[in-house]
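[job 4471] stage=fold_predict status=RUNNING
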Amino acid sequence: MLFIYSFLVLLASLALVPLTFILDFNDPRIRQGWKERLGLVPRLPDSAAPRLWVHAVSVGEVQLARQLLAEILARRPEVEVLLSSTTSAGRRFALEAKLPKTKVCALPLDLSFLIRRALRRARPNLLILMETEIWPNLIRQCSAQGIPVVMANGRISSRSFPRYRLLGAFLGRTLASVHRFLMQSESDAGRIRDLGAPADRTEVTGNLKWDLPAPEQSAASVRRELGLPQDAPVFVAGSTFEGEESVVLDAWAAMRREFPSLCLVLAPRHPRRFQRVSELLAGRGISHARRSQGGGATCEILLLDTLGDLRRAYAAGTLCFVGGSLVSRGGQNLLEPAAAGRPVLFGPRTENFADASRALVDAGAGFRIDSASALLPAATRLLRDPASREEAGRRGSALVAANRGATLRTAEKILAYLPASRT
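[job 4471] inference complete, writing structure tokens
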């Protein structure tokens, strides 16, 4: 089975490497990703300090990795870090963050000879896989070389669980090479045990997303920075996918009949859709400003086409909608607007945030809509009732505050696997 998997990865890589080179050609910082995919990752310093390889798939996971690394480096500041990401957006975000003692690269293709090359160059003492990054050859090569592997903030959604089960014993043998599974919830822990993770290596440390800090800037400050009016209501639609922008635009246009000053901040999930969404707006005859071009103080719609600004944009909102939840994507991070003290609207597809969505609804901080047509009446009710809106925001921020602590717990478990610095 491992041979078949590796053969399929090899076939896919014949198209993937040239394609990523073409797509990333205009950014010299990212362009070298094609070499890194061939195992030519940055060399970590040959020092007495432990070396840590952290892998995170894209922007959201890189953000959590930053948060986790901050806890680790606060206790072990000498540690050298290699942070890899599957996507160009994730690498770009990591590079712009300028993390201390951290080198950023693309994840090598999951072929044994390329993984061995990467391990020879990075020489990590520990591999951390964020969330559900299961790469069989990477895991097995680390295990063969005596490098512990830890899954951090692990999750197996109810949506993905049946697909994983199809891999049967092959997945079980891969999971048997992981030293520790630090899972988000009891449900996640139960699913990964059912897939073959040893029960004595699996524990619940909580969801790192609860620890994302609320923005330090005031709403007024963020609005000035983004070029949004100070006194107008603002509807923020974040992490939207194909098809959701049209739903949001229809609802916004209808709400403006009652709230004519209502502004919209629209943040598509994937950077490669920024231009397409801009063309959608232009095709509807809607003037808009783009954050990458400075925004505009009189804009009715701000297209948030930059990375790292969405969390602060939620804080500038009057109410927020989180995308990926009206389409089959399992939802995006519902806790960012809640941490900012804003009421959160989301659709029925929140498998990726099942526990968080239930907690928000139960606390009266989140509002689940059953369909696209329900967005307009739900959002309108919140706009009409400032007291209920503010109470929902307070409950959301209190809920997030009450659930903090997963980052520290996870960091403490990881630190146990890091060796002492050589003398």
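[job 4471] summary: The two ends are 43 Å apart (CA to CA).
[job 4471] exit 0
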